[in-house]
Amino acid sequence: MKRILFVLGFILLTAIIVSAQQKEASIAVIDSAVYDFGNINESDGLATHTFKIKNEGEKALVVTKVVTSCGCTSPDWTKEPIAPGQTGEIKITYDPTNRPGSFTKTASIYSNGKTGSFVLTIKGNVIPK
Fold it and tell me: What does the alpha-carbon distance between residue 2 and residue 103 come to, in Å, rounded to a whole number?
């Protein structure tokens, strides 16, 4: 009987700790995870879109790493912790040089947020010189 009560107490304590940790988590929210440049001219050079990332959690959100799917795409992001209720930025820049036609590129975002990682997508069509 003591063993059963001990095990039940341990399970209850674990559930309370996990619940408290989830409430304190940072939560990354993006309005739209896909951006369509439409038609861009190769002669215009680099094309950049800035995604806004909001922390809707109760703990600071830290974007730890951004990995793009191609060398033609480069990321830049808010390096400082994003406080609860505040917004940061993730800029994705595409180089259309010698890449005529349609494109779809992704950026994997890694953070301490509740979901851990998520993917942003840019797409469009490059009009050659």
Answer: 64
- Sheet containing 63-68, strands listed edge to edge, beginning at the edge strand earlier in sequence: 34-41, 117-127, 101-111, 63-68
Q: How far is CA 8 from the centre of its chain?
A: 38
Taking the C-alpha atoms of residue 90 and residue 74, their distance in angstroms, rounded to an integer, is: 10
Query: Is the confidence at residue 21, as pLDDT, over 50?
Result: no
Separation CA 112–CA 46 (nearest Å): 30
pTM: 0.79
Gap between the Cα atoms of 6 and 9, Å rounded:
5
**Token pair in block for residue 85:** 């209720």
pLDDT > 80? residue 6: no
Token pair of 86 as six digits? 């505040």
Q: What is the mean pLDDT of the chain?
A: 87
Distance, CA of 71 to chain centre: 19
pLDDT in tens, 67-90: 999 999 999 999 999 999 999 999
Classify the C-alpha dihedral 18-24-25-28 as positive or negative: positive
